[in-house]
Amino acid sequence: MSGEEERLPRPQPKTQFRVLVKNRRTLGDWQQLLRTRLDVCIRCWDHLANAPTQPIGSRYIPLKGEQAWCDFQGERLRQWQYEIDSGARVKVGVSKTYVVVISVSTGHPKENE
Fold first, then answer.
1. Are 18 and 12 in contact (CB under 8 A)?
2. How many angstroms separate the CA atoms of 77 and 31, rounded?
C-alpha cells in the first residue's frame, strides 16, 4: 500500500421514486432533523424512495380529512405522514414517480391536533 488512504464511496442504489423537497425552508428543517435523528431520517428517506405508498403501522400513514391531499407544482398529491419520533414528523406528497417533502417538524405539528 502506498500509505495514502482513500475512502470507498458508499454505493447508491437506484430508487423507484425521486425524493424532492418543497422549498428551502423545508430543506433547512430536514437538515436540522438530520443533526439530531440521523438513523431514523435515513430509514424514513429509504422508505420514501422505495415504497412511499406502503404504510408502516402507525409510524407512516396516509393523512385524512383536510390534510389528505396537498398541491405541488400544479399537481394534487396524496399526503402521508412519517412519525420520526414522539415529536418529529415529516409530511410528504406522493405522485407516481416522485415524493416531495412538504413539511418537517421537530415538534408535534399543530395542525394534527
1. no
2. 24
Q: Minimal CA–CA distance to 103: which of 21, 12, 1?
A: 21
Residue whose C-alpha is closest to residue 69's, from 100, 97, 43? 100
* pTM: predicted TM-score of the whole model, two decimal places: 0.83
pLDDT in tens, 44-89: 999 999 999 999 999 999 999 999 999 999 999 999 999 998 889 9
Is there a contact between 109 and 98 (Cβ–Cβ < 8 Å)?
no
Which of 59, 113, 111, 51 has the alpha carbon at shortest distance from 85? 59
Q: Is the Cβ–Cβ distance between 26 and 102 less than 8 Å?
A: yes
> How far is the C-alpha of 2 from the C-alpha of 73, rounded, in Å?
52
CA 73 to CA 65: how far, in whole Å? 22
